[in-house]
Amino acid sequence: MSDVIMQLADVMQREVDSVARIAQNAANVATAGYKARIDFSRLLTATGNDASSGAQVIQEWGASDAGYIDLTDGVLKVTGQDTDLAASGKGWFVVSGGGQQWLTRDGRFRIDANGFLQTRDGLAVMGEEGPLRPGTSGFQITTDGRLIVHGQETGRIRMARVEDARQLVGNGNGLYRLPAAPAWMAAEGIHQGMLEGSNVSVSTDMVRLLEKTRHIESVQRALQSYDAILNSGINQIGKE
To answer: What are the Flagellar basal-body/hook protein C-terminal domain coordinates in residue numbering (predicted)?
Structure first.
């Protein structure tokens, strides 16, 4: 009987973890470049039973219970800011700071006092030859990642593609650790003056939240029933 209770408790914990992932998605629905966390059950649907969806998913670092990251592109939004960049397809921006390089799809960049392109947290946006330095005005970044300053090409943005998605380790703030053996790729699908929106589906997550809540309630009732039966059995043995 205690094994049944432990199994039910494990199921409940998984569902609670799933609700936490839904809450994380909801909190980042307006975050540029955010990739939704999904459950293993949705992964099977996207890749096994619904081939027409074209969804690309990768496993987060850790056990499968941790969920997966949905890599489908978010909707592109025009901002008109020259320092805003959006990537479409499989390419990820490479940023650097503190001797460490990271991957991100959050293209809300800015120019620092020395004319270098950086993230909101001060990480350098990398080019193929080092940190990109557009200067303070008169620059363009083409769809194939070339940096054009006053009509002259001065560099090309660095892009990476992860061949083994399980190598991605999340670090928060939209950053992922660069794999030990990164797969560099020619920049493509770069959009200046635009941002990639979150790919969270609010309607889908609300349905999932309702399903998870109901399941948690049913498991909780089952736990209470088994616990009552166990206590009754122990009391009966004591009387005998």
So the answer is: 192-235
Query: For 72-111, how does the pLDDT look when each residue is reduced to its tens digit (9 = 90+)?
Result: 899 999 999 999 999 998 899 999 998 899 999 999 999 9
Distance in angstroms (rounded) separating the CA atoms of residues 93 and 159: 5
Query: Is the pTM of the predicted complex or chain greater than 0.85?
Result: no
Residue 80: exposure state from Cβ atoms within 10 A (0-12, 13-18, ≥19): exposed
User: Would you kindly state where each structural domain of the chain is located, as residue ranges?
Assistant: 1-29+204-240, 78-196
Token pair, residue 23, equals: 């809450």
pLDDT digits (tens, 9 = 90+) for 110-146: 999 999 999 999 999 999 999 999 998 789 999 999 9
CA-CA distance, 86 to 44, in Å (whole number)?
29
User: Do residues 86 and 191 lie in contact, with contact meaning Cβ atoms separated by under 8 Å?
Assistant: yes
Q: What is the C-alpha separation between 117 and 110, in angstroms, rounded?
A: 6
